[in-house]
């Protein structure tokens, strides 16, 4: 069985898409786009060198564009303090008494939680907002005044 050059390009593009689906590496899709461009160049009757150049330029160009697009986007907060990951972030609890080491126990969602102070200065009793969750410990800061 003799495969044509465009068919080989399409098979390589399909293999890269399958690899992307298996690994989740979006950059492989950019390289698959380069292989698709190589296949289209082969369909257009270009020579092997031209096909490789077109495929490489499109693949590298798409990869570079995606890299620079992602580099300009702001980084998300770490999972422990990211509200998109943990819905407890931003909720308010009431602290009755702080320990000398800046720790306390608070009642939240029907259970007693260990908590630590993350604000500035000396912790004072009263309402506090959850700013992070480290394992099973809440990290608290003074709640904003309304």
Could you explain the architecture of this structure?
This protein has 146 residues and is α+β, with helices and mostly antiparallel strands. The protein has two domains: 5-72, no CATH class; 79-142, Nucleic acid-binding proteins (OB fold (Dihydrolipoamide Acetyltransferase, E2P)). The chain has three helices and five strands. The protein has helices at residues 5-23, 27-43, 48-72; strands at residues 92-95, 103-108, 111-117, 126-134, 137-142. It has a five-stranded mixed beta sheet, with no helix packed on it. Helix 1 runs antiparallel to helix 2 (27-43) and helix 2 packs antiparallel against helix 3. The longest helix has 25 residues, at 48-72. The radius of gyration is 27 Å and the shape is rod-shaped. The relative contact order is 0.10.
Which labels suit this protein?
single chain; 146 residues; alpha+beta; OB fold (Dihydrolipoamide Acetyltransferase, E2P); 2 domains; 5-stranded mixed sheet; 3 helices; 5 strands; 22% strand; rod-shaped
Q: In brief, what are we looking at here?
A:
42% of the residues lie in helices and 22% in strands. It has helices at 5-23, 27-43, 48-72; strands at 92-95, 103-108, 111-117, 126-134, 137-142. The protein is of the alpha+beta class and 146 residues long.
SSE blueprint:
Layout: H1 5-23, H2 27-43, H3 48-72, E1 92-95, E2 103-108, E3 111-117, E4 126-134, E5 137-142
Parallel strand pairs: 3-5
Antiparallel strand pairs: 1-4, 2-3, 4-5
Helix pairs in contact: 1-2, 2-3
